[in-house]
Design brief:
Layout lengths: L1 H37 L5 H10 L6 H17 L1
Length: about 80
């Protein structure tokens, strides 16, 4: 009778660990994607600064093209 209770306890612990890992993975993934959507790693202001650092002024069309290409690259992943 005692061995059955120990076996059941070990099974419950293993199941809880597996459920915690799976839940933690999907929870962290959701939060990470949400934060990236709110705060993209590169914005138009950063692109303007990059063009300025290269020594040339950027037109609005060039900035929009760079942003569009970065968004397309993110969608393909």
């Amino acid at each position: 009778m005692m061995s059955l209770q120990i076996w059941l306890f070990v099974l419950i612990v293993i199941l809880c660990l597996i459920l915690g890992l799976v839940g933690g993975y999907f929870g962290a993934r959701y939060v990470f994607k949400r934060e990236l959507k709110k705060n993209p790693p590169i914005n138009e202001k950063m692109i303007r600064a990059m063009f300025k650092a290269m020594g040339r002024p950027a037109s609005e069309k060039q900035i929009k093209q760079v942003m569009a290409s970065m968004e397309n690259a993110n969608k393909q992943k």
